[in-house]
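User: Structure please.
Assistant: Input sequence and predicted structure:
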Amino acid sequence: MLRSTRTGGGYSLDSPLVKPVMEEIEALVARVGTHPVYGYTHCLRVYALAEQLAAMEDVTYDTEILRAAALLHDVGLYKAYARREPADHAKRSALVARRILQDWDFPPQASQAVIEAIERHPPGVPGGAASETVLLKDAIGLDYLGAIGISRMLAMVGTEDDVPDIPTAIWNAESLRQKIPNLLVLQSSKDLAARRMREMEDFFEDLRDATARLKLL
C-alpha cells in the first residue's frame, strides 16, 4: 500500500512559501543540468512519467516533493556540483540536494522526503513505501526503456568513459531492456514497460539486419 508523505500542515505548490523555491530549483537544474543523458530534460520526462503513473494507479502524492525529487535526483552528476565522494551517485545527489533545499528554506519534513526518494531512486536499490519514492523510482526505470532509452544510451558514447563506442551503448541498452522490467513496482509501470520493450526489440532486429548481426556496426 503506497502512502503519500504529506503530513499535517502540508504545503502546496501555490503556497507563497514553496512556489518561489520550486521555481528556483527548476531554474537551477535548467541551468546546470546540461548533460545529454541525465540533464534537465531527463528530469522533466521523469516527472511527467511519475505523474502519469500516479493517475493510472490512482495514487495520491505530494506534488512539490515529487517534483523536487525528480528535478534533483541526478544533481550530483552535474559538473557544477562535481565531487568524488560518496561514489554512489544517488547518495552524492542526496547530499547536494539537501544543501540546496536547506539554503532555500524548503520545509524540513518535505526536504527529508525528497532526500529519501533521491537516495532510493536507482533501479535495484530497495525502495520505500512513500508514493513519491515509488513513483520516482519506476519513472526513472521507464526512462531507460523504449526509443528514448536507446537514445540515452547512444548519447553516452564519447561522454562516459565506460561507453567508448556504439556497440557498447547497444549492449548496455539491451542489458537494461532485460533487467529493468523486473525491477518495476507498479502494474502500470510494467504495462508501459512492455510497450517500450517492443519498441526496443523492433529497433534491435532492424539494426541486426542492417549490420550483419551487428558485425558491421
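The two ends are 46 Å apart (CA to CA).
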